[in-house]
Amino acid sequence: MMVYFTTRPLVGSTGVAVFRWTFSLTLSHGKKHSMHKAIRAFLTTSDYHPCLLLVHPEVSRLERATEELASEYGWPQLRVGRELSAALLSQPPAGRSRLARQWMETRLRALAPGPVLCTEIDLLFEPTLHLDPLRLLRQASRITRLAVAWPGSTSDDVLTYAVPEHSHYRTWRKPEVLIAALD
Q: Alpha-carbon distance 155 to 132, whole Å?
């Protein structure tokens, strides 16, 4: 199930109403109101701690969005690539996948109760780590709420990471996370 935020319901291919809400984090009043509704929905989800993906193909756009959220809400930021790479340096290649999963859990427990802004997630897509980054983030969101800057796109229940020309390009059908496609 992919959840979108919107002002109007759409009927998905399964006949179930889904909501699409593409919002912007610009300073205009109307757009700000939309962003607050999306964040409120993220914060009030009660099944478990949700994982919200802030999706846009441009890293600079994601950086602006996460800087604004960190400033406005005071959420801690976990720069995954920067911090995880330091932890992996002393680990032999065979143990890096396990260490990456353990590191994520340990760091998020330290930052709980969150929400936590996860940025610089590119290292999670390194093929030698043998990770499913989306699965890892969904599991990690059970520790604390996560808002993740996801460089990619979403369309028709398909989430992508990067662009097709990129060597780490990946796709997921029906990713079962909250998704906010940034303008």
A: 20
For residue 54, give the nearest of 166, 146, 179 by alpha carbon.
Answer: 179
Dihedral, 161, 162, 166, 172 alpha carbons, nearest 10: 20
pTM of this structure = 0.78
Return d(Cα 133, Cα 182) in angstroms, integer. 20
Rounded Cα distance between 52 and 75, Å, is: 14
Please state, in angstroms and rounded to a whole number, the distance separating the CA atoms of residues 165 and 144. 33
Residue appearing with tokens 């984090």 = 25
Instruction: Provide the pLDDT for residue 92.
Output: 93
Write out residues in the chain with pLDDT < 70, as ranges.
1-38, 45-49
Write down the domain spans for the chain: 3-181
Quickly list DSSP for the chain. --EE--SEEEE-TTS-EEEE--B--SS-HHHHHHHHHHHHHHHH--SS--EEEEEES-HHHHHHHHHHHHHHH---EEEHHHHHHHHHTTS-GGGHHHHHHHHHHHHHHHHTTS-EEEE-GGGGG-GGG---HHHHHHHHTTTS-EEEEEEEEEETTEEEES-TTSTT-EEEES--SEEEEB-
